[in-house]
Write a structure and sequence with these properties.
The complex is a heterodimer of chains A (150) and B (535). Chain A has one domain. Chain A is built from seven helices and one strand; from the N terminus they run αααααβαα. Chain A starts with 5 loop residues before the first helix and ends in a 21-residue tail after the last helix. By secondary structure, chain B is α/β, with parallel strands linked by helices. Chain B has a single domain, classed as FAD/NAD(P)-binding domain. Chain B is 25% helix and 18% strand. In chain B, α1 packs parallel to α14. Chain B is globular and about 75 Å long. Classes of the chains: A mainly alpha (150), B alpha/beta (535). At the A-B interface, α1, α4, β1, α6 and α7 of A face α2, α6, α11, β14 and α12 of B. β1 of chain A pairs antiparallel with β14 of chain B.
């Protein structure tokens, strides 16, 4: 990370299922040991933008997401969805750069799309992706918006 | 029942009421400001910001925890082809809607105030732009408006802005302005009540982008600027959480003798006796108060309604937006616009379509850009997460905060079938659009699409529907006019037929044009103060 921006790192980095080894997640899924909450956490990690080194940021966000009303839409289907995704990802790649929606049931396709639209509409997530500090954090520089982007 | 007495009773502690009081205070007369909502503290603002983060709620707001039947009593006609479901985005609380407003401080144009004479639609103002201009200037200074005098489309101004504009953003310089130029238009400074430099003891903007709760105080809010001064005066009393339900007239029906109110907490009765009453309750509650004050004698259809004009001419702005992926990162943002274009406020044939202004900002907070970014990153049943993450920093939005309209047939009335928490009929809005109104929407869509192409956008969304974002600028339901057959109050904002009742809000606008109304409301409040002090 020393010589590259976080955003470029985001582009280059692997995004795994949660922040535990993929094999472990798949194994857990296979054994049906993941709860709806744990499954939704992993879905958010997959779809969301956080890098491995920003695990604590992702966990903090996800924990807050789980106690909002937003989570209600996804929780009932999260176990099935993470199982479907795990099969796809385990089979093809450990790197979650894209999701083959065609390999998911229609209902799960809709849910993945809805989660993506939801996540990337949050100011907090957008600012993370754009390498901007969080809302409310003063820059103290009235010309910061004139800067050439990284 | 408690009885209170004062000289000036101002109903509504929003920007109009507080600015009015700030000018009346020097008269030495007793002033009472009454608001249905609470006084928010700096701690409340900080807590709201934390709540917004804790709950991942970008739309956390000041009235979130208040019973909606108290704060936003409203019903709306069901949407049909020419009717739009109308929502109310106003706030209750000392500071009013300015607690969470964006702070854009546009002036009307000269033409906006005489559209009937010049173009044959809408209603003329009974005063001219020249009459209002000194008060617009004074309002800019009282509020603290940051802008440069670089707007080639603006009407005459007699003085300078009190502080320079914010420098244009990277996005404005590299995308918006060049795009406008390619289309033969000019971008210019966006007048905004966020300090670009320290002003009258308040900080300059510290670029935290949480403007709704503005931790630094750089963004104007009347409860932070004028109210602390008012609170130091012995002749001013500010009462929160008191809901005025009705105004009572004398036997002759030509004077208000009392305002009857209920405390929010326990619904105990309070009566206010005053020499002068001023209703400053915003574009919906001001006309509703006049309707709720109907009696069985002289004012059967509401106060000031002898010409049948109360509630007629209700108007608002359509505020559609278009989202782009501009192919390159567009840079940081301040949380508010630094550039706008008034091109389509003056360079249009107003017989063909309404006027509108163009605002742009790198993906403003409240636009759900994840929707477009996800759709555009999904092709052939593959959702590319890498592409999606690449797109987000390239997303921008063009919006018009106000497409002018006339809404022939639009109406604000009482809905006797729907009662608020106090048992009174709520306001019922019928917001209709004419074909001419819709031409403004179509023109904006056309211009925004071409502008996207001129800025080099690789993807351009469709415009949001005409009914999206409607509800921010309710106006026109108690219009100023020369006589009761044309409006509800005269050019000095005195309600027709009542000696001591004045009103000030955007409900008095005969026509709103395409400008965000706050500066005009403020100017009218300052002008009213001058008038009241003289009588």
């Amino acid at each position: 990370m020393e010589n590259i921006t976080r955003r470029r790192f985001v582009i280059q980095s692997y995004r795994l299922l949660a922040f535990i080894p993929l094999a472990g997640v798949v194994s857990c899924v296979g054994e049906s040991k993941l709860s709806a909450e744990e499954s939704l956490k992993r879905l958010i990690y997959i779809v969301g933008p956080w890098t491995l080194e920003d695990q604590s940021i992702a966990e903090d966000f996800t924990n807050r997401f789980l106690i909002t009303d937003f989570a209600k839409e996804y929780l009932p289907k999260s176990v099935d969805l993470i199982q479907s995704l795990s099969k796809q990802i385990a089979k093809e790649s450990a790197e979650v750069k894209e999701i083959d929606l065609g390999k998911l049931p229609l209902e799960e396709q809709d849910l993945i799309m809805a989660l993506s639209k939801q996540l990337y509409s949050f100011v907090e997530v957008r600012f993370y992706v754009s390498n901007e500090p969080p809302w409310g954090a003063c820059q103290g520089n009235p010309k910061w918006h004139t800067r050439i982007p990284n | 029942m408690k009885e209170l007495k004062t000289d000036y009773c101002i109903l509504g502690g929003g920007i109009a009421g507080i600015l009015l009081a700030s000018q009346l205070v020097s008269s030495g007369k007793k002033i009472m400001i009454i608001d249905q909502g609470p006084r928010f503290s700096e701690e409340d603002r900080a807590n709201l910001l934390m709540k917004s983060r804790k709950e991942i709620n970008d739309f956390a707001d000041y009235n979130d925890d208040v019973d909606p039947s108290i704060i936003t009593p409203l019903s709306s006609e069901t949407a049909k082809d020419d009717v739009i479901d109308w929502t109310n985005y106003r706030l209750f609380g000392l500071g009013g809607t300015a607690l969470h407003f964006q702070g854009i401080m546009m002036r009307p144009t000269e033409e906006d105030m005489k559209v009937r004479s010049l173009f044959g639609y809408g209603r003329d103002w009974p005063i001219s732009y020249a009459d209002l201009e000194p008060w617009l200037l004074k309002a800019e200074h009282e509020i603290g408006v940051a802008a440069n005098e670089d707007n080639p489309y603006a009407s005459h101004r007699s003085g300078s802005f009190p502080m320079p504009g914010h420098p244009p953003s990277y996005f404005d310089s590299k995308f918006f302005a060049p795009g406008l130029k390619k289309m033969g238009m000019a971008g210019h400074s966006c007048p905004i009540s966020v300090n670009s430099v320290p002003y009258r003891g308040r900080s300059g903007c510290l670029a935290c982008r949480a403007c709704k709760f503005c931790p630094s105080g750089a963004r104007y809010s009347p409860d932070r600027v004028q109210m602390p001064i008012l609170e130091k005066h012995d002749n001013v009393e500010i009462i929160e959480n008191l809901s005025v339900r009705r105004l009572e007239t004398n036997q002759e029906g030509n004077k208000i003798v009392a305002a009857h109110a209920l405390r929010i907490q326990d619904k105990s009765e309070v009566t206010i006796l005053a020499n002068n009453f001023i209703v400053a309750m915003g574009g919906v509650e001001t006309p509703r108060m006049l309707l709720l004050s109907a009696d069985n004698h002289h004012h059967k259809d509401g106060l000031g309604n002898m010409g049948g004009q109360l509630g007629r001419g209700f108007s608002d702005h359509l505020s559609p937006y278009v989202t782009y992926d501009l192919g390159k990162p567009i840079g940081n943002r301040l949380g508010f616009e630094t550039m706008t274009s008034d091109h389509f406020r003056t360079n249009v044939d107003r017989n063909e379509h309404p006027t509108f202004a163009l605002f742009s900002s790198p993906a403003m907070d409240w636009f759900l850009i994840g929707n477009e970014a996800t759709m555009w990153s999904s092709k052939n049943n593959m959702l590319s997460l890498d592409e999606l993450r690449e797109r987000i920093p390239r997303m921008a939005t063009i919006v018009s905060y106000g497409i002018e309209n006339v809404n022939t047939g639009s109406l604000l009335e009482l809905d006797k079938d729907t009662l608020d928490a106090f048992g009174d009929p709520v306001a019922k809005i019928t917001f209709k659009l004419t074909d001419w109104d819709m031409q403004g929407y179509y023109k904006f869509t056309e211009v925004a699409t071409k502008l996207g192409e001129a800025m080099g956008a690789q993807d351009i969304s469709e415009a949001s529907p005409p009914g999206a974002n409607v509800g921010y600028h309710p106006s026109g339901a108690t219009a100023m006019a020369r006589n009761p057959d044309e409006g509800v109050c005269d050019e000095n904002l005195k309600v027709f037929g009542l000696k001591n009742l004045h009103i000030v809000s955007n409900s008095v606008f005969p026509h709103m044009g395409a400008s965000v109304p706050t500066l005009t409301i403020s100017a009218l409040a300052l002008r009213l103060a001058d008038h009241l002090k003289a009588i």
